[in-house]
Amino acid sequence: MAKKTRKKSKKKTTTGSRTVKKRGVVSKERDRETASKINSMTNAIVKSSLAQRDPFVEIPIRSVNNMKYNAKKRILEMGSSKQRRELFNAGQARKFMQMMLISRGCKDLIEAEKTLSLRGMYYMSLHTIEGTNEKTFDEQTESDGILEDLEVTIDGLREELHVFAKKRGTMVGNITVIDNGDEIDCRRMGTGGYAIPSICEPSVIQFKKSEADFILHVEKDTVWSRFNEDRFWEKHNCILTEGSGQPPRGVRRMLHRLHKELKIPVYCLLDCDPWGHYIYSVIKQGSINLAFESQRMAIPDAKFLGIRAGDFERCDLSNDVKIDLNDRDITRAKQIMNYPWFENKKPWQKEIKTMLRNGFKMEVESLITKDISYVSEVYVPERLKEADFLD
Amino acid sequence: MPSTKTRKKPARSKKAAKRSVATAESMAEKQREISVSEFFAKNRHLLGFDNPRKALLTAVKEAVDNALDACEEAGILPDIHVRLLQLDESRFKLTVRDNGPGIVRAQIESIFGKLLYGSKFHRMKMSRGQQGIGISAAGMYGLMTTGKPVHIISKTSRRKPAHDVTLKIDTSKNRAEVVTDKESPKSDSLFPGGNGTQVVIELEGRYQKGRQSIDEYLEQTAIANPHAELTWVSPTNETIVFPRAVDELPDEPKEIKPHPKGIELGTLIQMLERTEAGSLSAFLQSEFCRVGQRKASELAKTADKLSTKTITPRTRVSQLGHAEANCLYQAIQEASIMSPPTDCLVPIGSRALLAGLLKEVQAEFFAAATRPPSVYRGNPFQMEVAIAYGGSLGSEETARILRFANRVPLLYQQSACSSFKAVAETSWKNYGLSQPRGSLPTGPLVVLVHMASVWVPFTSESKEAIADYDEIRKEMKLALQECGRKLGTYLRRRKQMRKQAERRDIFERYIGEIAVCCEAIVGADPKKVYAALRKQAAKKTREADQKLDLDGKVVSHQRLEQDEDVIILPDRQFLTGDESETLFEGDASPAGGKKKKKKATRKASKKSSAKKKKTKKKSSRTR
Questions:
Q1: pTM of this prediction?
Q2: Does the distance separating the beta carbons of A5 and B524 come in below 8 Å?
Q3: B524: helix, strand or coil
Q4: Are A150 and A240 contained in the same domain?
């Protein structure tokens, strides 16, 4: 069966190379490197199987315990602890098999020079195990997790494995980018904006021209639309991005590159709740789950513009906008307070304490109660002018 | 047991003068002796004849118990036929025939026609019957309910003709009345061995199968008496043979004298009155066990201190009054006297118990434990426990307890019995069974408890439950725990094996996928990889099979199998249906499988294993 697929894939490759704009997502050299990493992992398994030794893979652990805050670089980094995944362990056998299936899928993709979405990868590796009624994967979350395991194991990135995530996040503003050869002027994106792709590597996206002074990243699409409609980016000469809640890797990579390569400062406008604080933390230091990618995603200089806990009084908001903190919010807030990168920042300690004392959270949209465009015309410009933000 | 009943004279009040008052003389006319037979005729529930169904069972039980006792005492392997014929709706004719030594003509009246006549009451010897009430009470019950006399045919030797006697019991005189008496050479065909006894009783009753039935009684008798062969012809004309599983008679129990600590003051006084010994010392030495010259002097000395009169070992027994007897009694209680000899006890024995259970219970695991003898109130006793687990036993029900006293099944009053409490108090959870708080465990479990003693303390004359002495219950529990531990080990192992089978299943399921992936990624030979991984999977799960964890100890398989008191029939596991069928399939099956089977057949001797098939066939009808 495997041979067949390989033949097929070769055929498709030749037809694919004929299309004019077709360019590999990843360079050939990196492809070769990734493939050889998968091969050596598999070879080790074959070798130990034939030698009657336990076949296993060593996976760096992706959890809070194996993650440390690098105070100097101001980013989260993954520690060195690894976890063995063995075939002959009743609890790990299934995952071991799934890992082999995903490895094989990625190898096939690399050879075919194609990319698939996470869901596509799920379907590619999905089948019923012969002689049973057990499926190789029960749901996509299983294959997503295994793919992340594979990324850290072979020290390769998702895009190097030719897999991308669903597009999420939008951009508009004073910048022109080249996406897979197409020039895109983000000043002329209408109401919809430019959808930030999942893979924002330099091989796919290059920046052409930008005169923006800063980047304003907002939490959600609804707030972003408000700013876009008010042509905020035009008035203030900036780039306006949005990450649909927790920003996906594409958005974070895009922000990182804009910040690093074009030296544009990043300001975040997020909800006043633990979730908003955590989004800021992820943008700034990197996420716990993807600590291995912090290096190319985290923006330690990103600033938190609002909403601030004190805004309820400062902006004279009505009681209607209050949303009570629930028990989970409170524990989460306390956790965030104790993160090493927040621990020694007095303004942040004060901010979270104020929120806890208030006993309620607020969404960015709550500013709409003042005036439809209060947020874009008064709130943000004032904060920027006064340089009133948290770091 | 009161043999006479006298009424107290009522205190006469002044008012009573107006009434017609009975004088002491007129009352004396009404006062007369009540014979034992009369007493029991009115209080038949005391002997187990409270309702028609139970009466039938009691009659069978008494007759069979007597037959077994007689055979064993004469050193004959018992061969007993029980036949119950239904005459009309509530009338039955019970025939019990044995191949025992027979009864001499002169004794027939007394044995079958007189209550409290027997060989067993006055001696301290382990036997089924104790008081000598049983069979004559059954005859009396028959006479009372149907008016028909008891019919006995007995032959003592090939050379002598059989006696054919019919008896009526005169309840007022506690004496048998001979109705017919003849020598009957024709009856010889009944006794192919040349000797034996047959009793025929017509009585009222009700026959019903199920719990506490004659069938159950005989089945359990067969378990506890694997040396006996029982043939049972039921009213529905079914013939069931409970075959012999052991060809050896149990050892003849020795008779012992009472132990000083085991008697009460009243008994002591009676013994003092009846003894033929002259001096106190001689009395103590001749009437009791474990009392020698020195101990007798010691007892006399202690009694002397307590008494106002002088008591010496040489004091004549006739001069000891009530007060002195009491002092002597106190002295006995204070003295430390060696425990009674225990060679008077003949337990069924672990192997015979297992053989008995094996032929009557369809289980997969059997274990037995025999405790060393112990003593309660001066009476030696010994506990034996056997358990059967799994197989076709019901897994949802509470455990079934089979209780035996001196090899006699006890079917009534389970919850009043010491053994019931012992089973409930044992914590079966430790052995992998579920057990609601303070009650019997649930699961496919049969627990057999046997008490062997020269004097089994029953809660009543109908001998239904063992009295709850601490010493007895403690011994029961110890034996139960011993069996329980073995069961626990077995269950853990079985669980482990099942877990391993599951593990192997998991591994094998994924190995194929992995081999294919390896081929796709690096072009490895999938067949080679598959074979190598499969081999490893088999090795992994086999290794773990042998470990047997839980107490953290590495227990080898052999320990349980080499235990003489355990039988495992793994092929019966599948009868429960919930087992994983793959457990013993394939080349990777645990090595134990075949070996265990062999072991089981070896233990249940060749003969019994051949008979086992027969039993299965026959007893299947009973189920």
A1: 0.60
A2: no
A3: coil
A4: no
Average pLDDT over residues A94-107: 92
CATH topology of domain B41-242: Heat Shock Protein 90 (3.30.565)
Residues A243 and A327 occupy one common structural domain: yes
Shortest CA gap A304–chain B (Å):
47
| B505/B281: higher pLDDT | B281
User: Residue B602 pLDDT more than 50?
Assistant: no
- B337-381 pLDDT, tens digit each: 888 887 888 888 888 888 888 888 888 889 999 998 888 888 889
The C-alpha atoms of residue B230 and residue B555 are separated, in whole angstroms, by 42
Is A391 part of any domain? no
Higher pLDDT, B408 or B34: B408
The pLDDT value given to residue B92: 94
Tell me the domain boundaries of chain B. 41-242, 260-334, 350-487
Query: What's the per-residue H, E or C state across B296-345?
Result: HHHHHHHHHHHCCCCCCCCCEHHHCCHHHHHHHHHHHHHCCCCCCCCCCC
Residues in chain A within 8 Å Cβ distance of B531: none
CATH of the domain at A243: 3.40.1360.10
* Bridge partners (DSSP) listed for residue A75: A70
Contact B493, B546 (CB under 8 A): no
- Do the chains contact at B528 and A50, CB–CB below 8 Å? yes
| Residue A267 among the catalytic residues | no
Q: In this predicted model, which residue has the larger pLDDT, B48 or B570? A: B48
Q: What's the structural domain count of chain A? A: 2
Do both A347 and A312 map to the same domain? Answer: yes
Q: Are residues A50 and A179 in the same domain?
A: no
Residues across chain B: 623
Residue with tokens 């050879």: A111
CATH number of the domain to which A54 belongs: 1.10.10.10
Q: What CATH number labels B260-334?
A: 1.10.8.50
d(CA B580, nearest CA chain A) in Å: 16
Is A381 a residue whose pLDDT tops 70? Answer: yes
Residue A20 belongs to some domain of the structure: yes
Query: A368: helix, coil or strand?
Result: helix
Last residue of a domain, one of A113, A136, A164: A164
State which of A164, A191, A208 marks the end of a domain. A164
Residues A288 and A376 in one domain: yes
**Same-domain status, A179 and A130:** no
Return the pLDDT at A29. Answer: 81
Domain of A55 in residue numbering reads as 2-164
The size of the A-B interface in CB pairs under 8 A is: 85
| B202 within 8 A of B142, measured Cβ to Cβ | yes
Backbone phi and psi for residue A189, each to the nearest 5 degrees, phi listed first: -110, 10
Confirm or reject contact between A131 and chain B (CB < 8 A).
yes
Is residue A150 domain-shared with residue A184, that is, in the same domain?
A: no
Q: Which residue has the higher pLDDT, B42 or B80?
A: B80
Average of pLDDT values for A209-213? 87
d(CA B144, CA B138): 10
pLDDT for B115-143, tens place per residue?
666 555 556 677 776 655 678 888 888 88
Q: Under CATH, what is the fold of the domain B350-487?
A: Ribosomal Protein S5; domain 2 (3.30.230)
Task: In whole angstroms, give the CA distance from residue B397 to residue A367.
Answer: 69
Amino acid letter for position A290: L
Contact B533 A1 (CB under 8 A): no
Q: Which of B496, B510, B528 to mutate to test the interface with A (most CBs of A within 10 A)?
A: B510
Residue B159 CA: distances (Å) to CA of A371, B77, B99, B162, B191: 129, 21, 15, 9, 12
Report, as an integer, the average pLDDT of B598-612.
39
**A154 and A24 fall within a common domain:** yes
When mean pLDDT is compared across A273-287, A350-364, B207-221, B457-471, the lowest value belongs to: B457-471
pLDDT at B165 over 50: yes
Residue of A nearest to B501 (CA): A90
